[in-house]
Amino acid sequence: MELPLCVKPVSEFYTMSAIDQREGIVRDAHEENLLLLIRRNIINDPLTHEMLAIHNLDDSDGVVQLDVAHQLTSNTTLSAGADVFYGTADGLFGQFDERDRLNLRLLVSLWRYPPAMRSRKRRMPRNQRS
Questions:
Q1: What is the total count of domains within the chain?
Q2: Do residues 15 and 31 lie in contact, with contact meaning Cβ atoms separated by under 8 Å?
Q3: pTM
Q4: Which H or E element spans position 117?
Q5: Contact, 79 vs 66, CB < 8 A?
Q6: What pLDDT is recorded for position 98?
Q7: Which of 35, 69, 80, 120 could form a disulfide with 12 if both were Cys (CB 3.0 to 4.6 A apart)?
Q8: CB-based contacts of 42, cutoff 8 Å, min separation 6
C-alpha cells in the first residue's frame, strides 16, 4: 500500500579539487562537503516543499535553500524560495553570510507530453458513453 505523504531524504558526501589554483581565489584547492536534500509532496497535490542544505566541512560554512513550488498546470509551475548562507567570510559560502536572498520563479515548459503519455486512462469514445 502506498502512503499519500511522500518524504524523500537524500544525503551525499562529495569532495572537490581545483587543478589550477590561482592567487586571490577565496576557494580552497581541496574541499569536502555534505549535502542533505529533503523533498516533501503529497500524491495528487500540486504543492512540493524542498530543503537543500550544503555544509562545507573544511570551513564550517554552508547554505540552506528552501523552496515551495506549486504546479499550476501541466506545463506551468510557480515557486518561491530562500537561500540562507552561514559561516565566516573566509569560506566559499560564508562570504555571502550577509547576502541571503529570496527568489520567485515562474517556469513555463514549451514542450508537452503527447496525449497518450499525459494520462494512462483511456477515455471511452463519445458515441459509446451512456
A1: 1
A2: yes
A3: 0.67
A4: helix 115-118
A5: no
A6: 86
A7: 35
A8: 4, 5, 6
Q: How far apart are CA 35 and CA 52, in angstroms?
A: 7
Q: Which residue has the cell 483511456?
A: 122
| Separation CA 57–CA 15 (nearest Å) | 10
DSSP string, 30-89: EEEEEEEEEEEEETT-SEEEEEEEEEETTTTEEEEEEEEEEEEETTEEEEEEEEEEES-T
Domain span holding position 124: 5-128
Per-residue pLDDT tens over the stretch 98-107: 899 999 999 9
DSSP 8-state class, residue 102:
E
Cβ atoms of 116 and 81 within 8 Å: the answer is no
d(CA 33, CA 56): 4
Q: What pLDDT was estimated at residue 103? A: 95
